[in-house]
């Protein structure tokens, strides 16, 4: 990946000029925040589908608690999946930065060198960070893992959804192979739930890394995903 | 050779009863009334299909279940409908006499007979853990299946492996489809399978002379196309969010959903919630206990019967997705906090170090200007 005008050796802060580069196009930003919303809804409802809330009193005729929770989960799942398909499409037609988290150049030697530099930076061994317009190599790996995890969640999710909608429904036809591959619907449930935890871990690390970089490496992170511009504050 | 109809008449079944039986069979197989005359005609004209019933490593619960079939009546109709020529558990002959019958069927009906397998072959120690009639069961299975038209895997043993294949599976009990690779195999899982389902599957095969439509895992769609949960009479309580929280609580008395006490209905494909048991009298959920998922692959190794989020055996420890997730999340949270603390300290130190030379440079710049 192109490092921006900086080799990680010299001290910073000679001059205080601010440069800004347009990094994330509108569809990428929209996808990001839609996915954030979906993950919040999906994790909450998903948690309560596996471990339901305390029973509600009254006649079953007038209650639909589980029904609404499951509806929210399925609806958010559809949105997440459509968003992911849209994002993959944008990786093809979008700018260079729309591709970097999908297609990680693991065959590139220089990329690995930078990858280990970033590992050292995160382990406090390197003194100064490199600057990237898009993602640094470690970030790329994390984002690519997230994409794969989300793909798994969509595939296993629609496989489980297809169990309910039944034989002949599109979800059953397209995704029942996941159940067959695991051999057992219960295992798919367990791994789908484990997938939720994996994505929550990603979110924890992702948010921490973004805020930390925003503060420490003198470039904008959080606002970049809102405005699309990355500011370099030196 | 006599037809099914002749055999049934010989056994004292009236034509009226015969036609009733045809309707019941059509209904239980999910076929419309137009199929009743077709079933009747098939049974009137076709010679009986010989069935060889083999017993491997098993507990005979499939046979116990099968002989209790109410629709079609197993006692009279099925035992005459299918010509169950060889079944070493319930046949009258024994010893060499019985084995002679087996040889005779295999020779006389080469390529015509159906082999129904109850239990499975253990493969360790050359199959010595199951040794019926003087030969390892795996040998017998291969020998008898070689000239069969089709195979029926009765129960979870033959279909998936069941209890004898549960970890660590010391005898290497192996389901039939992993041993016999070149024959169509119909899996009828369950521990035991529902008798009416067993009877209907076999009736379908002899009536239509073909195997029923199977799903991707080889089970007849008409009985294994839906989960217990999909047709459960307690489903409205699930959707409402009304659960049995503990045994014997208010919810249990009111017949609420058993999801929270570990019911495996949502992950189990079987017909219990529609066909029920013992002639439609009851079934597990109706009697107040969750489904244990006995017709699913490896149900013995999937953690507790009483947990909804069950332990994941792949991790080698008793842990479920939530325990694993929360533990790792806690670890990562602590790591992030520590990392943030170190980052803060480091940046403070760096600032102190950097500010001096920086100021010097700026001063120099000023001087130059």
Describe the structure.
The complex is a heterodimer of chains A (234) and B (369). In chain A, 64% of the residues lie in helices and 4% in strands. With 234 residues, chain A is mostly helical. Chain A starts with 17 loop residues before the first strand and ends with a strand. The longest helix of chain A has 32 residues, at 185-216. Chain A has a single domain, classed as Fumarate Reductase Cytochrome B subunit. Chain A has helices at residues 26-50, 65-93, 96-99, 109-122, 137-165, 170-182, 185-216, 224-227; strands spanning 18-22, 229-233. Chain A is built from 8 helices and 2 strands, in the order βααααααααβ. Chain B is an alpha/beta fold and 369 residues long. Chain B folds into 2 domains: 4-224, Rossmann fold; 228-310, Cytochrome-c3 hydrogenase, C-terminal domain (Cytochrome-c3 Hydrogenase, Chain A, domain 2). Chain B has helices at residues 4-10, 15-28, 35-45, 61-66, 74-81, 95-108, 137-145, 155-159, 195-208, 221-224, 235-240, 250-254, 272-275, 321-368, and strands at residues 50-55, 83-87, 114-118, 150-154, 185-188. In chain B, strand 3 (114-118), helix 7 (137-145) and strand 4 form a beta-alpha-beta unit. Mean pLDDT of chain B is 85; it is low at 358-369. Chains A and B meet through helix 2, helix 6 and helix 7 of A and helix 11 and helix 14 of B.
List the helices and strands and how they pair.
The complex is a heterodimer of chains A (234) and B (369).
Chain A (H helix, E strand, L loop, with lengths): L17 E5 L3 H25 L14 H29 L2 H4 L9 H14 L14 H29 L4 H13 L2 H32 L7 H4 L1 E5 L1
Antiparallel strand pairs in A: 1-2
Helix pairs in contact in A: 1-2, 1-7, 2-5, 5-6, 5-7
Chain B lengths: L3 H7 L4 H14 L6 H11 L4 E6 L5 H6 L7 H8 L1 E5 L7 H14 L5 E5 L18 H9 L4 E5 H5 L25 E4 L6 H14 L12 H4 L10 H6 L9 H5 L17 H4 L45 H48 L1
Parallel strand pairs in B: 1-2, 1-3, 3-4, 4-5
Helix pairs in contact in B: 1-5, 2-3
